[in-house]
């Protein structure tokens, strides 16, 4: 059984005339008749009662017609999608640290996605979208960023930040009892510095400034050991393996949430880009933003209500 034979069957069923059906299909009448007979042999049923004067669907033909028509329509839709994908440029998307693991599957059927290999800080990725070097980016932004860069944003992910501490105590720690490390290198850590300073101010936690890149990685672990107190974890180190002697502790009263936004240009008119936005953000809930005691900065685009401090 071939798809073209099903298409022939559907057309003859619609016309109930082999001559008109052959004209629609642009094939010779005898060839159409042979293909229908071949389909009947393959299916082992008679699809049409026909004589010199009339053509009528048999009971089996009537029963099979809706499914045959649906298969033909699905094939046509698949062909249209494939043609659209072939004709359109890939949607360029960048990220900072967190991203979905099923890019291609989630975008399949709406657009081709090309993941940018340059993993850069949030403020850089947002600027690249505004400049047209990327179509989309997953990054941390505030309303002021969106306004300044003429971008739009939708929530796509959330990291629940924790405190890192030397020792074995894994009990929750109050936000005010954490230390926030910020880096003097604003070119690399602009977004984290803003977030960390806002969090520290909201909860009354001390801020420690460093110029050694020690807000993540091995140098960060050394700072934690030296400080001997809980230190707020940077989202870039959210899922890294910890060295011996360090533990994660939940932060409470309030719990800091780091939001990941999918951003695109306000003037974007590419159907492929907008389709990817819809596909990547479909079914995203509040991801804990409405939980009692959750905290995000007031200028966060996904801020739901006034989140508590100390």
Strand runs, count? 14
Largest sheet: 6 strands, mixed
Helical amount: 40-55%
Distance between termini? 71 Å
Q: If you average the pLDDT, what whole number results?
A: 90
Order of helices and strands: HHHEEHEHEHEHEEEEHEHEEEHE
Rough outline: elongated
Report the β-strand fraction as a percent range.
15-25%
As residue ranges, the low-confidence spans are 305-310
Describe the secondary-structure layout.
Elements: H1 3-15, H2 18-25, H3 29-43, E1 48-50, E2 55-57, H4 59-87, E3 91-95, H5 103-107, E4 113-115, H6 122-131, E5 136-139, H7 143-149, E6 151-160, E7 162-166, E8 173-174, E9 180-183, H8 186-203, E10 207-210, H9 217-227, E11 231-232, E12 246-252, E13 255-265, H10 271-281, E14 294-295
Parallel strand pairs: 3-4, 3-5, 8-12, 9-10, 13-14
Antiparallel strand pairs: 1-2, 5-13, 6-13, 7-11, 7-12
Helix pairs in contact: 1-2, 1-3, 1-4
Structure description:
- This protein is of the alpha/beta class and 310 residues long.
- 41% of the residues lie in helices and 21% in strands.
- It has helices at 3-15, 18-25, 29-43, 59-87, 103-107, 122-131, 143-149, 186-203, 217-227, 271-281, and strands spanning 48-50, 55-57, 91-95, 113-115, 136-139, 151-160, 162-166, 173-174, 180-183, 207-210, 231-232, 246-252, 255-265, 294-295.
- The strands form four sheets. Strands 3, 4, 5, 6, 13 and 14 form a six-stranded mixed beta sheet that branches. It has a four-stranded mixed beta sheet with strand order 8-12-7-11. Strands 1-2 form a two-stranded antiparallel ribbon.
- Helix 1 packs across helix 2, helix 1 crosses helix 3 and helix 1 (3-15) packs across helix 4.
- The longest helix is centred in the first third of the chain and has 29 residues, at 59-87.
- Residues 305-310 have low confidence and may be disordered.
């Amino acid at each position: 059984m071939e798809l073209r034979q099903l298409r022939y069957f559907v057309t003859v069923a619609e016309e109930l005339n082999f001559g008109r059906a052959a004209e629609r299909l642009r094939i010779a009448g005898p060839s159409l008749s042979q293909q229908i007979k071949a389909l009947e042999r393959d299916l082992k049923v008679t699809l049409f009662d026909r004589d010199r004067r009339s053509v009528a669907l048999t009971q089996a033909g009537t029963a099979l017609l809706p499914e045959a028509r649906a298969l033909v329509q699905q094939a046509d839709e698949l062909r249209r999608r494939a043609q659209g994908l072939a004709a359109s440029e890939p949607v360029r998307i960048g990220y900072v640290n967190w991203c979905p693991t099923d890019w291609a599957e989630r975008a399949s059927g709406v657009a081709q996605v090309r993941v940018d290999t340059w993993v850069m800080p949030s403020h850089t990725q947002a600027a690249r979208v505004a400049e047209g070097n990327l179509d989309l980016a997953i990054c941390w932004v505030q309303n002021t960023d969106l306004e300044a860069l003429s971008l739009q944003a939708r929530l796509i992910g959330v990291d629940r930040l924790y405190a890192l501490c030397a020792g074995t105590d894994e009990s929750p720690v109050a936000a005010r009892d954490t230390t926030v490390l910020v880096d003097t290198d604003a070119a690399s850590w602009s977004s984290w510095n803003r977030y960390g300073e806002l969090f520290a101010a909201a909860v009354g936690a001390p801020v420690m400034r460093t110029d050694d890149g020690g807000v993540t990685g091995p140098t960060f672990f050394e700072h934690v050991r030296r400080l001997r107190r809980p230190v707020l974890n940077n989202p870039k180190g959210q899922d890294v393996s910890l060295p011996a002697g360090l533990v994660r502790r939940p932060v409470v009263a309030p719990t800091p949430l780091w939001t990941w936004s999918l951003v695109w240009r306000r003037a974007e008119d590419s159907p492929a880009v907008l389709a990817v936005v819809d596909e990547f953000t479909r079914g995203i809930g509040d991801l804990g933003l409405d939980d009692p005691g959750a905290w995000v900065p007031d200028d966060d685009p996904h801020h739901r209500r006034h989140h508590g401090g100390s």
